[in-house]
Design a protein that fits this description.
Number of domains: 2
Number of strands: 13
Strand content: 15-25%
Structural class: alpha/beta
CATH superfamily of the largest domain: Glycogen Phosphorylase B
Largest sheet: 7 strands, parallel
Length: 388
């Protein structure tokens, strides 16, 4: 079967969650299908992107979207009913190119990642699958309570538009998938129970335990330009660390990941190291005794937790991130709510190596049992094949 993939970003390198998910789904589906990849690109194209992706796809079409076209699209979107999340990636010129490619390749099935590109294929009479991945409306809703007053009116408008658009997108696609059951239940449609949960996996051949001398007590990783990660880093440094330092004055923290925002860079100190982009994120995980992801906003499954657990590092996270995991609190992972709770659990792991090793081993086994790219992507293959 010929599949036409439409993505809002080129899925390499895999430093962002949507790119990681798309890359592995394409890799697995290429075992059964011929894949035509059409990816939008609003930045510089990585020199290895095309060579790596060519291993798995029949053809690649990267469509640049310039800063000027994005700005014009966003202005037009303000005077429409579309969410800015959609408007950022949509313009008529790109639509014509995508439609021409669909006519040229005559795919048997179209796969769209995120509602950001759903607009391009809404009226096309070819079987289609939408990967919601995350619930954008809920993500914006969670940001509302912590945003500056001047941002609230804009976020409220975006929230209402996303609610409407997520509902409309449901009706336009034959199949719908999403990353977790809690996210599925938040999609604003009465038939959201029909959305198939397709979790992420972990490349357990890549993310493996390492025997490395520890340089940090704690590590937090992710795209550090992403609002939920920015908020989490600030919460960690400003709320949690001062309490921990009352018990361990020499505590140190590594914050690792691409594109650190100015707010993240401002957190740097003698005890807080902000690395920025690293060529191999495994080194960042392995340098620390404990991985911590105190997510305060956002939705979806946290790949960073899966990767850390696969490397047999004990993890602490928030109830928000924990609910998508379906792990066992206190056995596979530790869950904390307040800064005091986080501090208590950090000190427990640092002071009790035997307990830390137990949590780490249980987490390692949990990930190996439950998060496999091949198994999860087979759910997509079944949906697509059923619609032949």
């Amino acid at each position: 079967m010929r599949l036409f993939f439409i993505l809002p970003r080129v899925p390499y390198p895999t430093e962002k969650g949507d790119k990681l998910r798309a890359f592995h789904q394409i890799k697995q589906l290429s075992k059964h299908h011929e894949i035509i990849l059409c990816a939008l690109n609003d930045g510089d194209l990585h020199e290895n992107a095309i060579p790596v992706l060519k291993k798995y796809v029949k053809a690649i079409h990267v469509i640049p979207i310039s800063k000027v076209s994005i700005a014009l699209s966003l202005v037009r979107t303000l005077f429409s009913n579309r969410p800015l999340q959609v408007g950022y990636f949509y313009n008529e010129s790109t639509a014509k190119k995508i439609h021409a490619l669909i006519r040229e390749y005559k795919p048997d099935h179209i796969f769209c990642q995120l509602i950001r590109v759903a607009e391009y294929v809404k009226g096309i009479n070819i079987p289609k699958t939408l990967d919601y991945q995350d619930v954008f409306s809920k993500g914006v809703d969670r940001r509302l309570s912590t945003s500056p007053f001047y941002m609230k009116p804009f976020l409220k408008i975006e929230y209402n538009r996303l609610l409407r658009y997520e509902h409309e997108a449901f009706e336009s696609f034959d199949n719908k998938i999403i990353i977790s059951a809690p996210d599925r239940d938040l999609i604003p449609h009465p038939d959201n129970n029909k959305i198939v949960v397709v979790a992420n996996g972990v490349d357990t051949d890549f993310f493996t335990p390492r025997e490395t001398e520890k340089e940090y007590d704690l590590v937090f990783t992710g795209n550090m330009g992403y609002p939920p990660n920015i908020k989490s880093a600030e919460f960690l440094v400003n709320e949690i660390l001062p309490i921990v330092k009352n018990h361990k004055p020499d505590l140190n923290l590594l914050i690792a990941g691409a594109s650190p925002h100015l707010r993240v860079l401002a957190l740097k100190s003698t005890q807080v190291h902000v690395s920025g982009w690293v060529s191999d994120i495994r080194e960042s995980y392995s340098l620390a005794r404990v991985f911590i992801a105190p997510m305060q906003i956002g939705t979806g499954l946290q790949n960073k937790l899966l990767e850390a657990m696969a490397m047999r590092i004990p993890c602490i996270t928030s109830p928000l991130a924990f609910q998508a995991l379906n792990a066992r609190d206190g056995i596979d992972i530790l869950v904390a709510q307040t800064p005091e709770d986080y501090a208590s659990k950090i000190m427990m792991l640092l002071n009790n190596p035997e307990k830390a090793n137990e949590i780490a081993q249980n987490g390692y086994e949990f990930v190996h049992r439950n998060f496999n790219w091949e198994t999860e992507t087979e759910k997509i293959n079944s949906l697509i094949s059923r619609g032949r």
